[in-house]
Amino acid sequence: MKFSVGQHALLTALSVVGKGMSTTSTIPLLSGIYIKADNGALEFQTNNLTISIRHKIPANVEESGEVVVSGKILNAIVKSLPDAAVVFEGSDRILTITCLSSLFRLNTLDAKDWSEFPALEPSSSCELPSAVLSEMIDKVYKVTSKENSRPILQGVLLTSAENTLRLVATDSYRLAVCETYSAAEADAEDFTIIIPGTVFHDVLTMPSLTEKILIGTTNNQIVFSFGDTTYISRKTEGSYPDYRQLLPKTYATALTADPEQFLGALRRVATIAATMPIMRLDIDADAQTMKLSITTRNQGESVEYIPVQVEGGSMSLSLNHHYVADCLASAPDREKIIIELQSPTLPTIFKSSGKINYLYLVMPSLL
């Protein structure tokens, strides 16, 4: 086997398939990268038993062949090289890598032991715009649960129906819903799937992402296809909670605030709250102001007032300031956010509109 490829293109390819390598397994193949050189192209594969990734790039292939090499070592080598041609030569379980004045000889694994990349035929699929999907996942990804005991809440609910693309995520303490218009083919079927949040985020941050992404499902797998990249992951099984029943139909008090001003005040108030996540909000309907305050036993108190437009009566409540900060940072409209309150003991709703409509629910906290 012998081929050459540019360092930058090689490094990008390794970053694409890197998410499929195992970092904890004691099985060497699972932390390796399979490379096949043939017909003027390189095919890279990784597989950690949960995720399988395949990516192809053009290269100058002088002699066909295949090899499996440590992904960690190969990544470290390629990162250290200058942006020049990198030459690979493989024989007798040794891979020689040269670039200008650098030379490496690496022990390799037997490529015959590598599992064939899964050949799956999705039973249903949906092609979506990558840029919009990436923007939407950034707004809901942090809301997925970090608890392994509830895998369904570690997922993001994606639905595409009636020209509406929707993402939903919740960790049971907060809920985020993003919606946007998405033109569909006249005969397009409704599409619904629960995608593991980390998988969804990893796919949509890949450097090989193209303008469109095809998402398909089988009985127990999710297949992402875009350009020369295929990413396969296990599907999250189960039924997603009916989040609509959590959304109140009325409110007692509503206020409109500047999200940038609100976020700036929140961050200043929270500087003393290293171990205190709870922030008190006092809405004064007469003065048309909102007071943000945090009190800690060791550090003292921080207070700031911001102007708001209040509809309804005054109200005081307590919320987790980390959750509120995530919401304000994600609001699509950077000039206005609407906050709807029922009572201090019921959920608070944040709404922001734009190309993407954003709804964020936060459960109340107790001081």
C-alpha termini separation = 66 Å
**What count of helical segments does DSSP give?**
6
CATH architecture of the largest domain: Roll
Q: Rg from C-alpha positions? A: 25 Å
Low-confidence stretches: none
Helix-strand makeup class: alpha+beta
Q: Any idea how many domains?
A: 3
CATH class assignment of the largest domain: Alpha Beta
CATH topology of the largest domain: DNA Polymerase III, Chain A, domain 2
Question: Into which percentage range does the β-strand content fall?
Answer: 35-45%
Integer average pLDDT? 94
Helix content: 10-25%
Shape: elongated
CATH evolutionary superfamily of the largest domain: DNA Polymerase III, subunit A, domain 2
Describe the structure.
There is one protein chain. The strands form four sheets. Strands 14-11-12-13-26-25-24-18-22 form a nine-stranded antiparallel beta sheet. It is 17% helix and 44% strand. The protein has three domains: 2-113, DNA Polymerase III, subunit A, domain 2 (DNA Polymerase III, Chain A, domain 2, Roll); 124-243, Roll (DNA Polymerase III, Chain A, domain 2); 247-362, Roll (DNA Polymerase III, Chain A, domain 2), CATH 3.10.150.10. The model has no long low-confidence stretch (mean pLDDT 94). It has 367 residues and is α+β, with helices and mostly antiparallel strands.
